[in-house]
């Protein structure tokens, strides 16, 4: 317990000049007696500084998300399972969506942040997924579609089969639609490019099909 007599000395008396002369000794005595405490900022104050807005709402500050200009597929995940997409780059962040093998391609950042990649789920939610379960797909840019001023029909295609309409004039481009014999006539470009003609698929998507399987009607 502190000395009561010292506590009394912690209450300055007299005029202003007297107080000024005694202020330093009084403060020293009060600090020694335990009646005065001087605090200093914590050395860890800058280690984790919460956002003022998050303190009001009780939410975690979302990490900066880069541009999603690359394409990915899920890997190392069973077809019956899923990959969590989280609100930030780490398991401490809550899930905001899921990715599965059946989703196919989806957009993502071209680089990882501490082992996590910013991605966009099939339902349009933005978040982060672990890079270990993502496979980056190197896509080839699409070729400009010329005017579709001619008409075609399929040839050398079985009645129960179909012809792929691809994103570009080569088999290395991914399919964007299909054409079947039952579709009858469809529009296409009047010229070809390396054995491929621009056409409109049955789903309305424009792409390229091999002229080997096309018969120009007019």
Automatic annotation (TrEMBL):
Transmembrane segments: none annotated. PANTHER family: FAMILY PROTEIN, PUTATIVE-RELATED (PTHR34408), GLYCOSYL HYDROLASE FAMILY 19 DOMAIN-CONTAINING PROTEIN HI_1415 (PTHR34408:SF1). It comes from the Bacteria. Residues 152-218 form the SH3b domain. This is SH3b domain-containing protein. InterPro entries: Cell_Wall_Dynamics_Protein, SH3-like_bac-type. The lineage of its organism: Bacteria, Bacillati, Actinomycetota, Actinomycetes, Streptosporangiales.
